[in-house]
Amino acid sequence: MKAKVHVTFKEGVLDPQGKAVRTALAALGFDGVNRVRQGKYIELELEESDPARARENVENMCRQLLANTVIETYAIDIAEQ
Amino acid sequence: MKAKVHVTFKEGVLDPQGKAVRTALAALGFDGVNRVRQGKYIELELEESDPARARENVENMCRQLLANTVIETYAIDIAEQ
After folding, report:
1. pLDDT at residue B80 in the model
2. Contact A6 B41 (CB under 8 A)
3. Which CATH architecture has domain B2-79?
4. Does the beta-carbon distance from B42 to A36 stay under 8 Å?
């Protein structure tokens, strides 16, 4: 079973990496980019075959390691592969 | 118009960050994780309102800045917002 996790900054948290990307894009001539947010994308291959349990496991992984829940939020996508 | 970009290592390219995450998960007691791949997730807010032109623009951004196409591959998702 595959899990796809997106970890992004919470709304209102400064995203310096995203800002740097926007500035660099503008310097390259890409106008019309109003906003850039950069986050992490993590793909996990799990032995678990029950989607509900897989999601619960990945939730725990996010809380304990993958995301800093003070400033980041996460979204989990469970795929049957 | 919103664009969502996933930048991941090409198949076969070593992903030390993903490996480190897997090791850390195992140390925390999360067994049954066979593989972890970590990539970047970038959200762009564009002024462009034509989906085809927006995709073309973002393709160019990926090739010129967002992805290192020697070792990375990218996927673009255009959303009407």
Report:
1. 78
2. yes
3. 2-Layer Sandwich (3.30)
4. yes
Which residues of chain B fall short of a pLDDT of 70? 81
Domain range list for chain A: 2-79
Whole-number mean pLDDT of chain B? 95
Interface of A with B in 9-68 (CB under 8 A): 18, 21, 24-25, 28, 30-48, 57, 60-61, 64-66
- ipTM, 2 dp: 0.89
Residues of B in Cβ contact (< 8 Å) with A43: 8, 35-39
What digits encode the pLDDT tens for the residues A56-72? Answer: 999 999 999 999 999 99
**Partner residue opposite B46 with nearest CB, options A34, A38, A57:** A34
Based on its alpha-carbon atoms, the radius of gyration of chain A, rounded to whole angstroms, reads 16
Instruction: Give pTM, 2 decimals.
Output: 0.90
For chain B, how are helix, strand and coil distributed in percent, rounded to 5? Answer: 35, 35, 30
What does the DSSP assignment read for A6-58? EEEEPTTS--HHHHHHHHHHHHTT---EEEEEEEEEEEEEES---HHHHHHHH
